[in-house]
Amino acid sequence: MRDPAGYSYLSFLTDYGREDGFVAICHGQMLERAPAARIIDITHDVGPGDLRRGATVLAETLPELPPGVHVAVVDPGVGTERRGIVAHAGGHVLVGPDNGLLVWAAEALGGIGECHEIANPGLWRHPISRTFHGRDIFAPVGAWLAAGLDPAEVGPEIASSTLVRLEEPRRAVSGRIAGGEVRAIDRFGNCQLSLLREDLTGLGDTPPDSLRVHLPAGRWTVPFGTTFAEVDPGAPVLLVDSAGYVALAENGGNAARRFGLGVGDAVDIEPGDDAPAGD
Asked: Can you give the residue ranges of the S-adenosyl-l-methionine hydroxide adenosyltransferase N-terminal domain (predicted)?
């Protein structure tokens, strides 16, 4: 599993934001140990402690990146007994807390391979803070791995079956109803659902303009299109987003705000009628 030449870059995702120096401090720890590595900042705008959002962004982003070391820190359990882990998947190396953050991404890369618990304090920054393991543990370990460290030196190998997993989003097709939930909401207010296009094809020969969407706030008939611009400005549309999921969007607007949706809200879709949206 080891690449003795190391990796040319590290990616980095956190919920640290950019108002403080936390991200820059971690960059410094990385570059001190792997000075030749390039750092790709995926995002540091994950909501504080929002494991699902962090896991979703990682799972959608890492398959688009070349093999490298990926450090991710969304860690509401920092300082507790939760483990730190290194997981291999599809030629990539993922580093972070064992709280479910890394698992969806590892599976999107082809499945979880060799795993190690981060247990070698000789690789860490000292003294260790109980509130900043991104600086003291994950950034240094990720950098050492990028520089060619043998993963066996990180700590003991552990079974992937012991890793903490997040609850999978609801996704089921029963009869002519596709049942899902809001998987993620981006900065434009587009609501990515937990459903795939094939989940909608199971509803029967439904015209694209007659999908009935059941939301917590009511029922709407929404067109199924391929672009935002297929509907009038301000109108809603269902489409398949760049990650392959069905999304509820609004042309030029904010679907999450329009429909009062949040992550985890139930969304059921069935063949509808030609009534206008918003009845």
From this structure: 11-155
Min mean pLDDT across 55-69, 195-209, 249-263 is at 195-209
> What tens digit of pLDDT does each residue of 262-279 get?
999 999 999 876 544 444
Q: Which residues in 180-205 are b (16+ Cβ under 10 Å) and which e?
A: bbbbbbeeebbbbbbbbeebbeebee
The amino acid present at 272, given as its one-letter code, is G
Give domain limits for the chain. 9-162, 172-271
Average pLDDT over residues 179-194: 95
CATH number belonging to domain 172-271:
2.40.30.90
C-alpha torsion sign, points 172, 214, 225, 175: positive
Give the CA count within 13 Å in the CB-facing half-sphere of 194.
21
| Cβ proximity of 118 and 86 under 8 Å | yes
